[in-house]
Design brief:
CATH topology of the largest domain: Rossmann fold
Distance between the termini: 56 Å
Bound molecules: S-adenosylmethionine
Number of domains: 2
Strand order of the largest sheet: 4-3-2-5-6-9-7
Strand content: 15-25%
Helix content: 25-40%
CATH superfamily of the largest domain: Vaccinia Virus protein VP39
Shape: elongated
CATH class of the largest domain: Alpha Beta
Structural class: alpha/beta
Largest sheet: 7 strands, mixed
CATH architecture of the largest domain: 3-Layer(aba) Sandwich
Number of strands: 9
Length: about 280
């Protein structure tokens, strides 16, 4: 059940606190609280979860997450100008919002969070992709998060959910789909943001699987996939030549034709190949 809060409209918050959007921080704000509540609902049942939000800005999504019943929200924001606006939200939802000022790429939030943990963010796209890759490649699996609900440039969202045979299929798809379910849950036009960015956006929801879909050593899988897609137009027998000796035999043993290209190879086949490469 959604209860939009009694705090001022976000346009007023932005005017009161002088939060003119800064391009250098990738600031394209969501000001429609019905929309931010809708995004928060895509993150699943929040009532028993701590939510890690990166880049809350003036707090539109933060308010959505709290109005949708999040047990607690930990928000990391780089722009100190946003802190007074976020403090007002903290007052309205006493004890439920903690804000850390800083760069999400440099802060380890885990000591401030209690599982189960969900992540939600509308971030600048470069930071979002970097964090997504980190969240998908932890030292241990399952990861600290149960789900990730993240806004991306539409083209990046399509790369995350892409299937073999499509232009968007590549490392990001394989990384995301190996140990998570990944779906696009919402499309947003540029006009949904203030100021509007040049491109369309989409929200991707990823749910961590308890264990990988197919067994493979993460480092070897990463090496095989990276080599395959580095030269995606080449046949695998050429692009994977340096990965291990007798590569053509290993490809055949994994059920892959050496003349195939990386973009035609399924996740299951890449995992089989990683297992073959792991053999002496
Ligand atoms: N979540 C807000 C919304 O939906 O309206 C703001 C979204 S805006 C696209 C991105 C936000 O991330 C900005 O508030 C920006 O200051 C913040 N930000 C940018 N880089 C960051 C970083 N490295 N760490 C934490 N926050 C960052």
């Amino acid at each position: 059940m959604s209860t939009i809060d009694t705090l001022p409209p976000l346009r007023d918050v932005i005017a009161t606190h002088g939060l003119s959007a800064r391009k250098s921080l990738g600031q394209n704000f969501l000001l429609d609280l019905n929309l931010t509540a809708k995004i928060a609902r895509q993150a699943g049942d929040l009532t028993n979860c701590d939510v890690l939000e990166i880049g809350p800005g003036p707090g539109g999504l933060t308010r959505g997450l709290l109005s949708e019943g999040a047990r607690r929200v930990l928000a990391i924001e780089k722009d100190p100008r946003c802190l007074p606006a976020l403090a007002e939200i903290g007052d309205a939802y006493a004890g439920k919002l903690q804000v850390i000022e800083g760069d999400a790429l440099e802060i380890n939030p885990l000591e401030h969070l209690t599982p189960p943990i969900r992540v939600a963010a509308n971030l600048p796209y470069n930071v979002g992709t970097e964090l997504l890759v980190r969240w998908l490649t932890p030292a241990q699996w399952p990861p600290f998060w149960q789900s990730l609900t993240l806004m991306f440039q539409r083209e990046v969202a399509e790369r995350i959910v892409a299937l073999p045979g499509s232009k968007a299929y590549g490392r990001l798809a394989l990384l995301a789909q190996w140990r998570a379910d990944a779906r696009i849950v919402l499309h947003l036009p540029p006009e949904a943001f203030t100021p509007p960015p040049k491109v369309s956006s989409a929200v991707v929801h990823l749910t961590a699987l308890p264990e990988p879909r197919f067994s493979a050593d993460p480092a070897i899988l990463n090496r095989v996939v990276a080599a395959g897609f580095n030269q995606r137009r080449k046949m695998l027998r050429a692009s994977l030549k340096g990965v291990a000796p007798d590569m053509e035999d290993r490809l055949r043993a994994a059920g892959i034709k050496p003349t195939e290209r990386a973009e035609q190879v399924s996740l299951e086949a890449f995992c089989a190949l990683a297992r073959e490469v792991a053999k002496k």
